[in-house]
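Working notes for the structural subgroup meeting. M.R. asked for a predicted model of this chain before we commit to crystallization trials. I am recording the input and output together here so anyone reviewing the notebook later can reproduce the run.

Input as submitted:
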Amino acid sequence: MRKNPIPARYFMVAGTFLLALLLYVDRICISVAKDPVSRELQLSDTQMGWVLSAFALGYALFQTPAGILNDRFGPRSILTIVVSFWSLFTALTGAVLTFVSLLVVRLLFGAGEAGAFPGMARAVYSWIPLAERGIVTGINFSGSRLGAAFALPLVAWMIDALGWRSSFFILGLIGFAWAFLWYLSFRDDPLEHPLVPEEEKEYIAKSRQEVKDEEKTKLDLGIMFRSRNMWLAMIQYFCSNFTFFFALTWLFPHLKNEYNLEAIEAGFYSSAPLIFGAIGNWFSGWWVDMIYKNGKWNLSRQLPAIVGFALAAIGLIASVYMHNVVGAIIFLSMAIFGADMTLPSSWSFCVDIGRNNSGAVSGTMNMAGNIGSFITALAFPYLSAWTGSVTPFFFLGAGLNILAMLIWLQMRPDRPLETY
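Returned structure, recorded in token form:
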């Protein structure tokens, strides 16, 4: 029998990569549509800040519940439901008529998207060998960055050509199509998938982070929130998202206004940091696995994250002193590259310590991270209005990155949630 040249588990990774891509195309569309939406609904910058943060609030609040649902019912059904749910509210964004209705729709859109990455983490736990966890996590998150990067100029063109309302309708339909195909093709456990070869099933079963039945733990929120590892993961991810969410919300309008750019031109410049974010995910994912294969479990998570946070701090501060758009983009690209280097470490860490509860653990970390996103969406316009400058925002972000470097020195991926 001829051996399949492409392992079946990589097709699962392709599905989650496309999901991450869709996730961020839908998410960043509102940033690109800021000017026409603001004009038509007569919204100020601070009101748009609340619109952008409403998504982050809904996304943060539903992370832990979504993770619990993925652990209990499996990512096949839960991802199908949540993608359908958020796609509905993507489409409904194109139908809003008032500031309040836009706030509500974006809040519910964020609540729907909350289930995506915890579902991916739970699928990775079941499908992916421990030694491949870093690169697979990097691939998945690179999809989100590439989705956002390509969406910036593409959605700017769609909005110019079709209008912002039609653009949201089209993106909603694409989401429904992904959900249908996922339910047809995915199974929660690769051992139950009819198209996974027997030899690959055997390999996955032997090399994934299997937990014996007697070692499996029922989720206990008290244990989770008493865990030092859990709190450290949450705080450092808050710091990471504070930097990254700027690229999804205010980077496009900031560049457009600061350097007097046309919408499509601003879209191309804004996409560069996100492309570097994808590269940061790939590089860090490879580095995580390489260090792990050398027998250094803790260092494999800590070192890439610490280097990433250092680059993010340097990039944010240096960007303030650039007087042209090219210089600013070079250092902002460094910042997002660094911030995204922290993701394979962070999400691998959650699966390491959470094991059969990895959906809930990763969802809780992501909840904290998106409180950072919520604050970012408001901090940029309010700090700019209060101080008359964008500089304080970038220095605040750099300080949080330095704090996260120190936090990673205390994190222990080799210690389960219950023991540290």
